[in-house]
From TrEMBL:
It comes from Eurypyga helias (Sunbittern). This is Alpha-1,4 glucan phosphorylase. Its cofactor is pyridoxal 5'-phosphate. GO terms for biological process: glycogen catabolic process. It holds the Pfam family Phosphorylase. GO terms for cellular component: cytoplasm. It catalyses: [(1->4)-alpha-D-glucosyl](n) + phosphate = [(1->4)-alpha-D-glucosyl](n-1) + alpha-D-glucose 1-phosphate. Belongs to the glycogen phosphorylase family.
Length: 303
């Protein structure tokens, strides 16, 4: 649309996608909806801006306790569901770190994988150190012919297999791929999430509505200034989101330099180690070359 917009800008206006709080708060998280209604009445159901009234209660101990209690109940319920579905024992007091969306290179599930591997290596190199236990969940479907997306799913499950069965790690870190991600599963996982991963490359407009569902359920957002994260930061105050990474103008500047040329994973030994492990078959011992394509893409033509 860019060229048309430059010709006749007055014909264009932006509408950011939205979600319905009836499904994504009332229906899937009745406990939280009740706690909110108790404090500010039921007007927010049809006028979400009334949630601003909750600002009066940010330091209210009983209210904070009630919200935390609802979250913990949701986590216990979801941990039981995961145990039944995936036969993996989940620590319900671990941080539920969730990224659910279509599997796509620019949504950067790969970045999340590198983070999981790095956390794993940190625990392995110093098992006596205290770590916040974390359960990383990545879910989403891949388009039928999208080879790289299928490989990313394979990588997530392979990393999970190694980490989840490592006795050194115990229940401090688990990696789960949520299969067949769909609305009915979203309604279970989103109310239980502590951390919402919205880490697409800035400018790709990839953070759309999942981020809003997580936020209205009281998960913290970590992410880039992309898509609706921008409006969420405006509404909630940027200091209440964990924003990181390049901004749109930085990405454009990199593009102009032609930064897709091969570059080493820089001065970060942890990143180098993670990439080397994936490339070398650490997570695919039965097929050591399995992820060569993924690493090749990452190193040579990573958009």
């Amino acid at each position: 649309f860019k060229d048309f917009y430059e010709l006749e800008p007055e014909k264009f206006q932006n509408k950011t996608n939205g979600i319905t709080p009836r499904r994504w708060l009332l229906l899937c998280n009745p406990g939280l909806a009740d706690v909110i209604a108790e404090k500010i009445g039921e007007g927010f159901i049809t006028d979400l801006s009334q949630l601003k009234k909750l600002l009066d209660f940010v330091n209210n101990e009983p209210f904070i306790r009630d919200v935390a209690k609802v979250k913990q109940e949701n986590k216990l319920k979801f941990a039981a569901y995961l145990e039944e579905q995936y036969k993996v024992k989940i620590n319900p007091s671990s941080m539920f770190d969730v990224q659910v969306k279509r599997i796509h290179e620019y949504k950067r599930q790969l970045l999340n994988c590198l983070h999981a591997v790095t956390l794993y290596n940190r625990i392995r190199s110093d098992p006596s150190k205290s770590f916040v236990p974390r359960t990383i969940m990545i879910g989403g479907k891949a388009a039928p012919g999208y080879h790289m997306a299928k490989m990313i799913i394979k990588l997530i499950t392979s990393i999970g297999e190694v980490i989840n069965n490592d006795p050194y790690v115990g229940d401090r870190l688990k990696v789960i791929f949520l299969e067949n991600y769909r609305v009915s599963l979203a309604e279970k996982v989103i109310p239980a999430a502590d951390l919402s991963q919205q880490i697409s490359t800035a400018g790709t407009e990839a953070s759309g509505t999942g981020n809003m569902k997580f936020m209205v359920n009281g998960a913290l957002t970590i992410g880039t200034m992309d898509g609706a994260n921008v409006e969420m930061a405006e509404e909630a105050g940027e200091e209440n989101l964990f924003i990181f990474g390049l901004r749109v103008e930085d990405v454009e500047a990199l593009d102009r330099q032609g930064s897709t040329a091969r570059r080493p994973p820089g001065p970060l030994p942890e990143l180098r180690q993670a990439v080397d492990q994936i490339a070398g078959g650490f997570f695919s011992p039965r097929d050591p070359g399995c992820f060569r394509d993924v690493v090749d893409m990452l190193m040579n033509h990573d958009r």
